[in-house]
Structure formats: structure tokens, C-alpha cells
Amino acid sequence: MYAFTYTHPASVAEALAGEGQFLAGGQSLLPSMKLRLAQPGAIVDLNGIVELAGIRVAGGQVEIGAMTRHADVAASREVQAAIPALAQLAGGIGDRQVRARGTLGGSLANNDPAACYPSAVLGLGATVVTDRREIAADDFFQGMYTTALDGGELIRCVRFPVPQAAAYLKFKQPASRFALVGVFVARTAQGVRVAVTGAGLSVFRHAELEDALNRSFTPDSAAGVKIDDSELNSDLHASARYRAQLISVQTQRAVAQILSAKTA
């Protein structure tokens, strides 16, 4: 490590009054600092700000504070009742230690290409609420580790519209438990949304799958879509072609899961 200043504010106003890198759960920032991939000169620890955590369901939306832990989302009966797929997704992030410390806001601000939460935010058409504005999910994720957030902008909460139905299927990278490919499928009043994580430089929606499923919401319809692998990741874990196959298979399984839950 190296020298840096550290502050531990008790309110959002106090956090915004200072300068430095925001620290949420620390699951990405601290390892990066240890490896000197990140070297902020000042750290603003958000863990003492009570107003940034919590879950509220009202008006057809689930509002989750930015500092809410993955484990708390997974265990929330309100989330389990309103958006079961979101609770299930949170319960499958990393391991128990990561879920106990990692936060929704930290995951979104970091925007790891293989993170799970971005697929739920994009798949559900959520809204990211900051200290300055509201950002639609379609505008928030802009590239590898890149978001629409400006310097010093703080995520306060995320508002998830309650869908008609949703499912998240993840093929894990066994060591990191990040998504080799994860697919979030949601049926909403505006149509089907399909968000893919782990396969590209950032989370993205798959227009062809959405079009096919809007015409016919069946696994066979998803299977009939040819997945273009020309812009997908290819690395030591999986080729682009393999990831394309996983997108297709995971989407089919997600649709089947939604249909099965509907008839249960």
C-alpha cells in the first residue's frame, strides 16, 4: 500500500464536502490499491452513512440504497416477493464474505464487465439516483469500467420497476464466481428486455433476442436467434464462440424458468 488520507463521514452532505475516492464495500477498490492498479490520494469511506442503506417497496418499484449489502438484498422478503430474480441474483454474487461487504452502489460505480448487478439494472430498466440527477439504466453503462457518473458524483439509490416476471441465469467462472456469461430476462409492460453480462466489454442489451421474445416468448424463439460473436470477449476462460452459445442457452433457460413459474 501507500500513503493516503482517510475520512469517515456520517452523512451524504459531509461526504460530498470532502474530496477523494468513495469507498463502498471495498471488494474492488481495496484489491486494486494493494496491487497499485489504483492509487487514490484520498479515501472517503461511505460505510458510516446510514441514509445510503435500506430497501423500500412502494408504487410498483423496489428502491435499494447504494450502500445496501448483497446479503441484505438476497435475504430481503420484500425483494423476494416483488422481484425474486433480483434477490436470487444478489444471493449468487461471489462468496459469503463478498456478499457480506459488497454493495449495490459500489458494484454499479465500478461496472466490472462480468458483474451481476449491472444486468439486473439494465434488464429491469432501473433508474440510478445520484446526489445530482436520475440516470436511466440505458444511459448509465458506457463501457469497460465506465459509467455516466461524473467525478465526485455519488449514487444514492437505485429504483427497480417491478416486472411482470424475470429470471437471471449465470454461468460462473469457478474461481472468481463472476459471470462467464450471465443473462437477465425481464417481461415488462413495455416489452421484453434481455441484458447480458460477462460476454462483452460492458453489460449490454441484446436487441435480436428481445425482438424474438416479444414476438413469441418461448425457449424455441430464443433458440432461433443466431448470436453474433464478432464483438464478444475471447480469453483464457472461454472463446467468443463459446460465450455466444452460452448467451443462447442461458436465455432459453431463463425463459423456461419464467414460464414454469407462471404455471406453477
From TrEMBL:
Matching Gene3D superfamilies: 3.30.465.10, CO dehydrogenase flavoprotein, C-terminal domain, Uridine Diphospho-n-acetylenolpyruvylglucosamine Reductase, domain 2
UniProt entry keywords in alphabetical sequence: FAD, Flavoprotein, Oxidoreductase
Pfam short name (any one): FAD_binding_5
Record keyword Oxidoreductase present: yes
Domain FAD-binding PCMH-type positions: 1-165
UniProt key word Flavoprotein: yes
Protein name: FAD binding domain-containing protein
